[in-house]
Each structure stands twice: as structure tokens, then as C-alpha cells.
Amino acid sequence: MPSKYPNFRNNVPWLILFLEAVFIVLFFFSTYDASRSSISYPVFQDVSHMVIFGFGFSLTFLKRYGFSSTGFNLLIVVLGVQCSVLIEDLLAFLLQRENEDGLKRITKATVSVTAVAISTGAVLGKTNPMQLILMTVVEVMFFHMSRWINNTFLQVPDNISLMHVHLFGAYFSLAVSSRFSEPSPTSKKNASTSKSDLLSMLGTLFLWVFWPSFNSVLAMDGKTKAIYNTYFALAVSSVTAFMLSVLTTKDGKFRMTHVHSAVLAGGVAVGYTAHSIEYPWIAMILGLLSSVIAVLGSYCLERCLNPALKIHDTSGVHFTFGLPAVLGALAQVVLLVIKNWTNSPRLGYLVMIPVGAFCLTISVALISGFITGLILNLKLFKTVPVSKYFEDQFYWEFPHLAVGF
Fold first, then answer.
1. pLDDT tens readout for residues 146-178
2. What is the CA radius of gyration of the chain?
3. Membrane spanning segments where (predicted)?
4. How many separate helices (H) and strands (E) can be counted in the chain?
5. CATH code assigned to 42-385
6. Which of 65, 126, 339, 382 lies at a 20 to 30 A Cα distance from 218?
7. Is the Cβ–Cβ distance between 176 and 372 less than 8 Å?
8. Taking the CB of residue 278, how many other CB atoms lie within 10 A of it?
9. Model confidence over 73-95: pLDDT tens digits?
10. Minimal CA–CA distance to 203: which of 353, 391, 69, 82?
């Protein structure tokens, strides 16, 4: 590669070495309970498969960014899980809480790092490894901060506060993305091929299959209901995605981008209430509405809102995760009102808890994301030039890519 390009040997390896050295030292003071866990290993595997395989392959739709999509996703996930476990340990120490068993701790950490995997989608192809690593550490810290406030002051259950991961990841990444230059409108690198779309859909299918485990893994009560409701919400959102894809395309054919973005929307929307919904038709309605929002939202956001705010959302995390998460938070409030309608003296108080948690989460995500975007664009971190967006060759030994460029 020409010498004018930055050599990441001078900073990325040393940053990783520094972080690992810190993690190892801090883990020296960490202990875990090896007794029987409340979470089974197969369920933990499901969540791990989602984050590694699912998100890793779902981001491979860019024709020249497949190595980076899967490779960098693995890097930030394993670093983020270590960071998340240590932050949980620190909070347990400061608040004098009893440490949870090891499998539950690493499962919660993996769920938390989903926020980073989602955020990567909005800045995909525009950030270098050093920026991604720094973004991972900062985002994990702020997500835990928002969770701690929700748990401590609003008394939000732990499993519900973790379901804010989609909301936080989506709006954190949009705020970060607003600080990066938009790619050239004439650039052909920000495009997909049939092969890259197929690999991306493979990742989406991994996410789809394991999403019921994700929504139910930390549910203390109603675990079976969470699995049941999540499956039906996903099923209806998938069917609706195919229907809307045909209706909204000029030639009346299915469009892979519609299916890719909307089939998961039901799982996101039902996350807050999956364990408490009593009837499957409610989950099915959520799945239908979330898919409509994802498909139609992609048109509105890409044509109106994103250009006005100067946001380039590479993989469409806003309408894939952000808007369905907002719908899920609204559904949580509506179902809470219906369930406690007769308890009018406490109804206002009960409603303010999820509303407050939603407002807090999205506020922390936007503010921390905007500040993180400013920091990542400092010259110290060697911002990728716009001309080199979406290129594997900028980072990987991949000689045959040079042919036909």
C-alpha cells in the first residue's frame, strides 16, 4: 500500500495491548461463582452466536468491506465483553452487591455489547480499527451508566434495562455518524453485489433464529412467554416485509434490502414486553407495525431526515433498530396502562417509570454519541479519508482486490 496511507502498526496493536494489560490486571481482583447458574450454556451460546455470527455477517453487504465487517466485529465484541464484565464488577463493588455467577455475568456482558454491534452499522466503512475500539469502550461505559441510573433511581428491572440496548445502540451511532463526512454521491463503493447481499442475509437469518433466546435469556418470570411472543412477532414482521417489498417497488419484485432490514423489527419491538404479553395476537400486531415502520421509515429517513441532519447511516440502523425500539417502548406504556387501568391512583407513577427510562436512555445515547463522534474525528486518531471509505484494502492484506479497482 502506498506510504501516504496511515500505518496502523504504530497505534492499533499498542492500544489493544494496553487494554488487554489493563483487563488482565483488573481481572486479577475479580472472582466468579462456579456453582449452578440460572442461565444454561446453550442459551448463552445462542446469544453469542447472534453477536458474533449474526451481526458479523449481516454487515457484509458492502461489496468491498467483507473482511472488515466480520473481522472488526469480532475484535470489538470480545474487547467489549471484557470491558462490560469489569464494569459490572466495579458497580457491584461500589454498591456492595453480591457478585452474580460467572455465566450470567458474561451473558449480560454479551447482551450489552449488542449496542456496539448495532452502532457499528451506522459508521460501517467510515471508521478505522482504532476509532472502533475507542468507540466500543466509551459506548459500553455510557450504556452501563444509563442502565445503572435506570436500575437505581427508576427501579427498572435488570432484564428490561438491558432491552434498551437496541435504542441506545441506534441513537448513539446516529450521533457519532453525524460527525463523519458523508461519502461522495457518485461513489460506487457504497454498494452491494448479489454475493455480498447473500452473505448479509445469512447473518440476518442467524439473528432471526436466535432472537427468542436473546429476549428471554434474562427474564426471571415468563421466560416461555418471551420465547413464544418473540417468535410470533418475528414471524409476522417477516411476512409483512415481503408483502411491503412487493407493494413499494416499481417493478413489483422483492427487494433484499427491505427483507434484510424489516424481518428483525418484530424482535426488537417486542423486547420490552415479550415476557409479559398474555396473548400472541398482541405480539403479532407489534411485529406487523414494526415491519411497516422499518420499510416505510427507510424511504422517509433516507430521502428527508438523514440529508437534512447530514447523517449517513450506512446499514440503516435507525429504521432497523431505532424506530422499532421506539415502538416497543410506546407499546410498553400502552400495555401498562391497560393492565393497571383500575389502579388509577398509581397509574401516573407507573407510566412515568418506562417513559423516564426511555427519555434517559435516548438522551444519554445522543449526548455521549455526539461527544464520541467529535473525539473520534481528532487528527490524533487518523480519520479515514472519504476517498478510502468502504475499502478492505485499506486495512487488510488482500492483494487480488487491486485487480479491477
1. 999 999 999 999 889 999 999 999 999 999 999
2. 21
3. 12-31, 43-62, 74-94, 106-125, 132-149, 198-214, 226-247, 281-301, 321-341, 347-378
4. 17, 0
5. 1.10.3430.10
6. 339
7. yes
8. 11
9. 999 999 999 999 999 999 888 88
10. 69
